[in-house]
Amino acid sequence: xxxxxxxxxxxxxxxxxxxxxxxxxxxxxxxxxxxxxxxxxxxxxxxxxxxxxxxxxxxxxxxxxxxxxxxxxxxxxxxxxxxxxxxxxxxxxxxxxxxxxxxxxxxxxxxxxxxxxxxxxxxxxxxxxxxxxxxxxxxxxxxxxxxxxxxxxxxxxxxxxxxxxxxxxxxxxxxxxxxxxxxxxxxxxxxxxxxxxxxxxxxxxxxxxxxxxxxxxxxxxxxxxxxxxxxxxxxxxxxxxxxxxxxxxxxxxxxxxxxxxxxxxxxxxxxxxxxxxxxxxxxxxxxxxxxxxxxxxxxxxxxxxxxxxxxxxxxxxxxxxxxxxxxxxxxxxxxxxxxxxxxxxxxxxxxxxxxx
Length: 356
What we know:
Elements: H1 17-29, E1 35-39, H2 46-58, H3 80-87, E2 93-96, H4 114-117, H5 119-125, E3 134-139, H6 146-157, E4 163-169, H7 177-181, E5 184-187, H8 193-203, H9 208-218, H10 222-231, H11 233-244, H12 252-263, H13 269-291, H14 302-312, H15 315-335, H16 339-354
Parallel strand pairs: 1-4, 1-5, 2-3, 3-4
Helix pairs in contact: 8-9, 9-10, 11-13, 12-16, 13-15, 15-16
């Protein structure tokens, strides 16, 4: 991700006006909670909001509104605080994320370890370099292991004056209850399709048709939509639907060719994208079948494929297929199963279940 695409450099925040207003109300009341839990699905703008709050607080609360109280968290990109936060060089802002190992080549750790958070207490105990606040962003708090979570809990139990902790969380249920209880929660909702469409058209060179399809595929997450756009996710999803459209007898040669091509991707991105999309679509089919609602198609022909499969087996049987497929893909990543065979087995599982 380039610096310009990183949440620390994002100037606008779309679709989360309510969350922004709740923070502003707390700020203007003079009773600001020392810790905030920013919750919601991955990729919808939680980290962008965290950096937006950090800039606002570090700049002393913006420029003020009509009656002196600020009415927006916005800090203009020309402001020195904005520039220092965007460059990662503000002395009163500490960001805690997963760190890299000392291996050769280095690997990104799977969790935030205690060494990553050990400096928070010392950082917050120092006098602010610019005489105002000290801010810590933990992105994402769900990735802390138990030791690092307990270290953060100690800070939350005895917060210093004029210190603010912002915990980004995709799955707050994974956090210690004691951490949740010491934070004020801001819940962000997935973006509406039209909001996501507008963002995609602004931030990419996609056609409107492709942008709308990605907006539906991403279900309200601009981060997921942009990632799928970069990974060719829409084309891969269309291939999945085209292959399933051959049911009740799939074109085995075509499925083999697709599975082989996906498996040969050196970085594994294509494999992860396909497995994520496959599981997502099965869950989507179960939801549509359970609710009896119409389907806003991602690609033409999707609804017809779904209708035929749902008509061939009971909903609980499709739920079982989803569970088996999810488990298969998880094992593939955990124990390095043959990727081609894994993708092939997923298609064949759907074919066997869907046969009359």
